[in-house]
Fold this sequence. Notes:
Layout: E1 2-10, H1 27-39, E2 46-47, E3 56-66, H2 75-80, E4 87-95, E5 107-116, E6 129-130, H3 137-145, E7 149-152, E8 167-178, E9 188-196, H4 203-216, H5 224-230, E10 245-251
Parallel strand pairs: 3-10, 5-6
Antiparallel strand pairs: 1-3, 1-4, 2-3, 5-9, 5-10, 7-8, 8-9
Helix pairs in contact: 3-4
Protein name: tRNA pseudouridine synthase A
Catalytic activity: uridine(38/39/40) in tRNA = pseudouridine(38/39/40) in tRNA
EC number: 5.4.99.12
Amino acid sequence: MRNIGMTVSYDGTAYSGFQRQPDQDTVQGRIEAAITKLTSDQITISASGRTDAGVHARGQVFNFHTTSAIPIERWVLAMNSRLPNDIVVQEAWEAPLDFHARYSAKVKTYRYTILAERNPDLFRRLYEFHHPRPLDIEAMRRGIAYLEGEHDFTSFTSPKSTKQSNVRTIFRSWVEVEHAGSDEAGRGRIHLFLKGNGFLYNMVRIIAGTMMWVGEGKLRPEDIPAIMKTHHRDAAGPMAVAHGLLLWSVEYDGEERI
Length: 258
């Protein structure tokens, strides 16, 4: 028996999320179908996490067990020739038998992108939220910094979350801005990055919506700690749309490879 680990990128636009669902086109379903074509076995993969419909990934990680003798260096090409063009395997490796893409993960990073320009970008409209008015980017930087550290993020997760604990640690949170055409203050392509040990259901999208309220002046950066202390979803801002979210990377401790 072998344990194969892979990193995959995908455009989530056409899919009903990552996780396999009955009668739905999902990223997991497409990947498992490709593996079955290669090995003739019914394979179930384990991923580092689930992404919702419309959410994208740059560095999703998954693993699966197989008795296939396909050399590890051939897996990437073999998979990509059997996957649609909006799903691309970037890397494959031999993993220890006890490696699990989700339970072995140590750090995950997400990016949420907002285009604060008068007009949307036709060619990137499926990967960013268009905000036609300028935003106070420095206020957003101050606001998102309050999220760093270990906190109870109940205020920033869906009431549908089934996790036993809503305590998570954000190792780093930051804002990057790209010039996108206008020199007016508050304009540009704004990337919100969150690096943590785990994330709750809809957590990054709710944080992004809250930071947009900070950028609009509806909340002050200094309101963020008080919002967290309420432990109530209604205290935070709205949930941002799915297509601006990207699973940026998943990190392990180096023991995920043989």
